[in-house]
Amino acid sequence: MRKQGFLLLMLVLAASFKLLANEPTAVWQGKASAVSLTYDDALGSHLDTVAPQLQHYGFLATFYVVINSAHFYQRLEDWRKLAVAGHELGNHTLFHPCNGKLPGREWVRAEHDLSTWSVARYQQELQVANTTLAALDGRTQRTFAFPCGDLKAGETSFLPLLPQYFIGARGVESGVNLPKQTDPYMLKLFDATNLQIAQIGPLLDSAKGSYAIFMFHGVGGDHPLNTELEVHQALLAELARRQDSIWVAPVVEVLASMAKAH
């Protein structure tokens, strides 16, 4: 009798562990983890270098677009093609406003200095950027990325505005996002600036059972925050090698899947 009780306990524990191990697969399209590749500021390298590499591997990504970027408004048809292919055009505002009073922010133009803005003005920034993107891609759902990681206009948080316009937002805090513990409006990330090839495997290993977001700016040297071209290529190749266990998708798709599962 005691032996039967022990066996029953082992069966219950095994079933429990199996359920725990399988829980993320219901969230991430049958995979153990999810990864989103995100690219900020609407740069030329995103269209000319990143997009062809993504297409080669069949990956879809999120491009956080600054509407006032010359590489955006001068190449609208190229961005439209990205959206048609299934990539997300995320909102990164009209003018990339940041708090110019913080150290190292001497580059912030006076008219784009968040420390002087009201929340109402920031709301207009979000609205017009969303309207512009919707005119380009026809979509009603998208996500947001905080320029410079700033969360206030003047002295007031604009975070309460976000659910009106987005299903989630990528922050700047480092880390992974766990099922049922993730704030969709403050998603954590891995900053890929100066990423090294030797770091790729360990980073992906550390993200098992979670949702990881990689943040890129320049790829190949067209931005001070840069990821070397061969490193970007190596990351995509490693993600392709792990496709049986990692779902690679735009942020908007992963958040929609997580919301549906819960």
TrEMBL record:
Annotated CDD domains: CE4_GLA_like_6s
InterPro entries recorded: Glyco_hydro/deAcase_b/a-brl, NODB_dom, Polysacch_Deacetylase
Annotated GO MF terms: hydrolase activity
PROSITE patterns, alphabetized: NODB
Domain of life: Bacteria
Pfam families: Polysacc_deac_1
All residue ranges annotated as the NodB homology domain in the record: 33-262
Entry keyword set: Hydrolase, Signal
TM ranges: none
Enzyme class at the top of the EC tree: hydrolase
Enzyme Commission number(s): 3.-.-.-
Keyword Nucleotide-binding: no
Signal sequence bounds: 1-21
Name this protein carries in UniProt: Polysaccharide deacetylase family protein
Species this protein is from: Pseudoalteromonas fenneropenaei
